[in-house]
Design goal:
Helix content: 10-25%
Order of helices and strands: EEEEEEEHEEHEHEHEEE
Oligomer: single chain
CATH class of one domain: Alpha Beta
Number of helices: 4
CATH superfamily of one domain: Ribonuclease Z/Hydroxyacylglutathione hydrolase-like
CATH architecture of one domain: 4-Layer Sandwich
Largest sheet: 8 strands, mixed
Distance between the termini: 16 Å
Radius of gyration: 16 Å
Shape: globular
CATH topology of one domain: Metallo-beta-lactamase, Chain A
Strand content: 25-35%
Structural class: alpha/beta
Strand order of the largest sheet: 6-7-8-9-10-11-14-12
Length: about 200
């Protein structure tokens, strides 16, 4: 599988390169980027134009398309409105190329026990750390500790200081990659790994 960070909360997952490959776009920022499956963590973004005729996901539920299993999880219960939290956010758990990837979207608070239970056993966790309408580095690190993924990729940040704070909170030495290529056997078996991706 190949993981590209496209900036902010936008991510591209591919099982392989080529016309017969499957591409999952989460929060696409460029209408020219084509995907087999396109999903939005904020349903209010669903009216954005996308290239081609992909399978579109913008609400919670379970989906099975093109050999990819996706679960959309509503991360805000009813009391969110009363607490003046953002109205909408979906977490996606994507099973592609025998690897489980979770995208936390624009999460702005800690997860409930029920939500955490749906995310256990994940291989790769994409977690926002920016703190601007999303969780900050310290809350993100606590969520990572609760989920215990094999590999963590921070997203949704604007400058290096936010990454430095997250690295310090997590206590893991990161590696830097332009894009991440991995198979199931490449995943760490014991110690969790932290990968900082460049924006592509």
């Amino acid at each position: 599988m190949i993981i590209n960070w496209l900036g902010h909360l936008s991510v591209k997952l591919q099982d392989k390169i080529g016309q017969d490959g499957i591409t999952v776009l989460i929060n696409p920022v460029n209408a020219a980027t084509e995907g087999t499956i396109v999903a939005w963590t904020n349903p209010q973004e669903k009216d954005k134009k996308v290239k081609g005729t992909p399978f579109l996901i913008d609400c919670a539920g379970e989906y099975d398309t093109s050999g990819v299993l996706i679960e959309g999880i509503d991360s805000y219960p009813e009391e969110a409105v009363a607490n003046n939290l953002p109205a909408d956010n979906l977490i996606y758990r994507v099973e592609i190329d025998d690897i489980s990837v979770v995208h936390l979207g624009s999460l702005s608070r800690s997860l409930t026990d029920d939500q955490l239970g749906k995310l256990l056993g994940v291989d790769v966790l994409l977690v926002p750390i920016g703190g601007n309408k999303t969780i900050d580095a310290s809350v993100a690190a606590a969520i990572v500790a609760s989920i215990e993924p094999r590999l963590v990729i921070p997203i949704g940040y604007e400058d290096a200081s936010q990454v430095e704070k997250f690295v310090k909170q997590l206590g893991v030495v990161p590696t830097q990659e332009e894009k991440l290529r991995l198979t199931k056997k490449d995943l760490p078996q014991e110690e969790m790994e932290l990968v900082i991706l460049q924006v592509n």
